[in-house]
Design goal:
The structure is a homodimer. The first copy, chain A, has about 375 residues and is α/β, with parallel strands linked by helices. In chain A, about 45% of the residues lie in helices and about 15% in strands. The first copy, chain A, contains 15 helices and 17 strands. A five-stranded parallel sheet of chain A has the order 4-15-14-13-12. The first copy, chain A, has a four-stranded parallel sheet with strand order 5-6-10-11.
Chain lengths: ~375, ~375
Amino acid sequence: MAALSFNLQYQDRGSKARAGVISTDHGEIQTPIFMPVGTAGSVKAVTQEQLRSDVKAQVILGNTYHLYLRPGLEVLERAGGLQQFTGWDRPILTDSGGYQVFSLAGTRKISEEGVTFQSHIDGSRHLFSPEYVMDIQRIIGGDIIMAFDECPPGGCEMDYAKKSLELTNRWLDRCFERFNSTPDRYGYTQNLFPIVQGGTYKDLRKQSCEYVASKNARGNAIGGLSVGEPEPVMYEICDWCCDHLPSNKPRYLMGVGTPWNILECISMGIDMFDCVMPTRNGRNAMLFTTNGIINIDNKKWEFDYSPIDEGLNNPYSNNYSKAYLRHLLKSKEYLGLTIASIQNLALYLWLVEEARKHIIAGDYFSWKTAMTERLKQRL
Amino acid sequence: MAALSFNLQYQDRGSKARAGVISTDHGEIQTPIFMPVGTAGSVKAVTQEQLRSDVKAQVILGNTYHLYLRPGLEVLERAGGLQQFTGWDRPILTDSGGYQVFSLAGTRKISEEGVTFQSHIDGSRHLFSPEYVMDIQRIIGGDIIMAFDECPPGGCEMDYAKKSLELTNRWLDRCFERFNSTPDRYGYTQNLFPIVQGGTYKDLRKQSCEYVASKNARGNAIGGLSVGEPEPVMYEICDWCCDHLPSNKPRYLMGVGTPWNILECISMGIDMFDCVMPTRNGRNAMLFTTNGIINIDNKKWEFDYSPIDEGLNNPYSNNYSKAYLRHLLKSKEYLGLTIASIQNLALYLWLVEEARKHIIAGDYFSWKTAMTERLKQRL
C-alpha cells in the first residue's frame, strides 16, 4: 500500500493542458478526469454497475456532511469504509463538508474552533472542527480527503476574503497536524489535499497557493470558484492559481462546471473536476450530448425516435430514443432520471477521455475550440 | 407471424399445476409466469436491461389507461408500438384500462356505451367504450390485449354482480366484434383475452367461464379477485374458475398477489400472473427474499452487511448489503428503489421458474407447502 502518486505523462503543445495518471490503492485514474458526485453513498439514480460499465467512471466523490448524518460513522466504520459499504471498488474522494455546512445559512455559526450547524434531517446540533473532519473522513475512508476550509460567499469584499483565508490557513495547519498523527483505517492509504481560497483577489490567491504548496501534499485543490462570480473572472483566477501551484502534483478544481468550463480549465492545467451539474440537470430534463444541449421537455422531441446520443458508447444513449426519454421525464418515471443521468455523466467522462487523447496528440487547443462550439449548441 | 399458441407440456401429479410454453411473435414464455407491471411504458425504477438480465422477465404488462393519457396514441403509433417505443423486445400484455378507470371513483360514469372518466393528469374528459379500447390496444400494440369489462367492487351484492356481469358480457361481444374486424397494426399478431367476472358468486362465475370459453380465444383471464374479499374466498373462486375454463388455453389471474398466493393459484391451474406488489412494496421497504420477508426499514438491519439475498442470481441481490439498501431507502436515494424493485421482481421470477421445475419433477405440491412456509417467514 502506497501514498497517492502522480505521473505526468504528456503536456499539450499549444496550451497548459496535461495528461497523467494518478495511482491510488484502489487503482489508477487517467487524467484529466471528471468525478461523478455520489452525495450520500450513491450517484443519484445510477447503479454502481452502470457507473463502471456505462458511465466509465474512474473515481467518484462522497459528501462528508451527508454521510456523517446518514448512515453515520458507526455504520461506515463497521462496514470497513465507504467502498465496502457501497460496493464501489474504485477510488473515492470525500469533500470536507465545509461547502455544505456553509450553505446552511442561518443555522450555522463559525468560530475559531470550527462550525456549529444543525442537521437538515432532524435539526440536531453538531460541531465540525478541522480535527473532527479529519477523523470523520478517516472513518468514511476516501482515498483522497479534503481539508476543512471556510468558503467565503461569491463576490465578497477583500477584507472578508482576507480574514477568511487566514482562518482557512490556520485550519489547514490543524488539518495536517491531525491527519499526520492518525493512521489509515482500512489497510489502504488516504491522502489529504489542501484547498486554495482567496475569493477573486489575485494576491490572496497567490498567497494561498504558496501556503498550500508549502504543505507538500500529494495533490492540491482550488475551491471557492463558480460560486456566483462572472465566468471570465472564474477563468482568470483558475488560470492564475494553476500558475502558482506545483506542476508535479494533480490540481483539482472543485465544483466546476459545464462541459466547456471543463475544457477551458483543462487548458490551464487542471487535472480533476467534480460537479453535480450532469446529474442534477439531467433530472431536470437538460441533456448534454456530443452534438449540443437538448431540453428534452421541449415539444420538438415528442416524435423524435432517434437515439439520445449516438456519439457515446453505452446502451442508454444508443438504444433509448429522445421521444421515450421525454415521455419518461414528463411522466415522472424513475427510469427517466436514470437514463438522463447516465447520458450526462457518460458525456462528461467521454469528454475528458477525448481531451486526454488530444493532449497526447498535441492538438488540444484547436480541438477544444471546435468542441466547445459543438457542445454549447442548443439543439 | 402466427397467433398465440399454448403448448401444455407437463401436469403435476399431486395438484392441478401445469407447465407449458406460450408462443408469441415476440418470443416464447415459459409458464407458469409472472409479468412485471410496466405502468406507463416503464417498470418503475428498473431499466429494460435489468429486466432482461437481472429480473429475467419474459413478458411485461402495460397499462392502457396510463399509456393512452401519456405519451398518447400518436406517439405510440408513430413509434411502431410499445415495444419499439420502449426498447423492450419481448412480449407485452396490455390491460384494458377498465380497472384503472373504475378506480377513479367519483369522476367516472358507467353507461351501456362505456365509461366516461376524467384524466388524473389534467382533468380532461374521455370515453372508453369496448370498441375504442380495442382500437387503443391495437395502437399500443401489445401481443396480448384484454377485453374491456366492468370490475364490480369487492364484496358487492349478488344483484349488482349479476347486472355487472351481463354488461361485461355485452361488452365482450362488442370487443370481439371490433377486434375481429380490425387488422394487426405492426406486422405481428395481437391476441384478445376475455375476462371472467361474477364477484364471489359461483353460479355467476360458472356462467361467466362458459361465456368466456364460448369465444374460443387464445387465452382466458380471471378478473375481479383480490379486490377485498377474504383470501380463502379468493382461492375458492379461483379454483372454481380454473375448473370451468378450457384446459388447453393459458389461464391468467389478474392482479394477484403475494408470492404464496401465486404458488397456491398455480396449484389450481393458473399459468399467468401480474401484480404491482413486488415493485410497490419494494419501494416501501418491504422485501421478498428466498428466506422470507424483510422490512428493511427495521433498525435490526442497520449493521447487517450480508447480501440482500444470496438465493437469487443477480448482482443486486448478491452484491449489495442489507445495511446499504436500508441506508439508501431511508435517505430516499433512487438507487434504493431500483435495488428493492429488482430484488422483489427477481424473487417472483425465480419463484415461478422453481415452480415450473417442480411441476416437471412432479413434486409441486409438497414443494409448494414447504416454500410457502419459508417465504411467509418474517426475518
